[in-house]
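ok so dumb question maybe but i'm new to this and my supervisor (M.) told me to 'just get the structure for O-antigen ligase-related domain-containing protein' and walked off. so i did the thing. is this what she meant?? sequence i used:
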Amino acid sequence: MTNETYSDPAAVQQTVIAPVTAMEQPARSRNGSQRRRQPVPLSIMGGSSAPKNAYILFLLVNVTLFLRPAELIPALANLPIYEVLILLSFFLSLDQIKRTVKLPMLKRQPITLCVIGVLVAVAMSHASHMYFYGIHTSTVMFLKTLMYYLLLICIIDSPQRLKGLLKTIAISSSVMILLCVIDYVGIFDFEFIKHVSDRDGVSDAGEVIRVFRMRGTGIFQDPNDLSVLIVTTGILCWYFFNDPAANPLRFLWIVSMIILGIGLIYTRSRGGLLTLGIAGMVFVLPKYGKKAAIACAVVGMAGVTILAGRQGNIDLNSGTGHDRILLWREGLSALKSPDLLFGIGEGQYSDLAGLAAHNSFVHAFTELGLFGGTFFIGCFFFAALGLYRLAQFQSKSLGRPIFRSRELERLLPYVSAILAAWCGGMMSLSRCYVVPTYMVVGVCAAYLNLAGASLARPTPLVYWNKQHVIYLIGVSMGMLIAFLIFVRIFAH
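this is what came out, is it supposed to look like this??
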């Protein structure tokens, strides 16, 4: 790729996107001959591309993240496979990473700046309490997550690499979920998969109601966490099934989606169904408009109520739904203390309330304070803002392509749905520091890097400047106030 200088797109909302066909016509000199044009960079980050070896290793990192070879093959149990793969990929991509973390590049991609801000907030949350051991352990823990994120945005620097990463994630997670379903129904007993029997209230006779729920492997052992992964994987499977360049075996994506649907039911997760509804609305909205999205939501809610049993019974006044709101109240109450700015400390929520918050945003505000909570929200705010601007450009183009890459244009609603699904899932899960959260954030950031360069007039879609910082602070404070009001109404 070539280096390219981009201006601060503070007024990118007012930018008129010219049709790609018009922009792609080569300029001519006075004598009618074609002038030689500078090649357009594939990413707004510019610079040289990461080595192919680093890309292959990073794909293997993602396979390892989902399939856990150390669990599948007991002989590999003591081998640090994931760590070796990610370190090798990191060192091969060191030049690209050094470029990415420079201030001009961070301003061009504020999502990265926010992820680094979360790292600083993790350290400050313990430093404010003079807890030096916590500074060390928590910072090292999140540094591993940051390494994964940086590798993703540095290595995924072309539409082809992005598509390859998404296919790797879709296949790996589909296989993992298939193994979980096989184990859950009793076809084969995998020792490394352990499902869980959860308490689900009390019957009229005073007996405790329990429900058997499917869990995943490794970091997806929470059924609610697994349900969000299932929805995200389903979106990717639908994307590849609709690929115009797909081979005759694409019907296998339908088989995968059927297995995912069965798995979603076996998780018995209410949050998973809500996540599916949110993703569906966001996917339908840009294509068919608000009325279609609302209609889908109404039909979906009616169907869930009739068919989903426990999953369709969403009650904020009793049961696990109300218990989670009480957990939110415990955390938000801590913000009234001197811990308002930097929080109570990463990993301390369970000591405060007995359990995790079961809400990533409340969890981040409580443990990292206003400082860290704002950076955490910023990861998703800037991703959503960039995708929203692309959707606006599409609606104003009157059906004309706005990207040089048709694949990026086709991918927009799917990336938007994935982001919406994960944000919806985080409303009932505490996943502030884990790799899958920043995998989703990283995919959005990589997509925006590629999309900004693929526009007829290449420009960053979001930028770290005064206007955007004000927007971020406003959104962050608005979310905090909304949580406080919600808890005040429903926590009793």
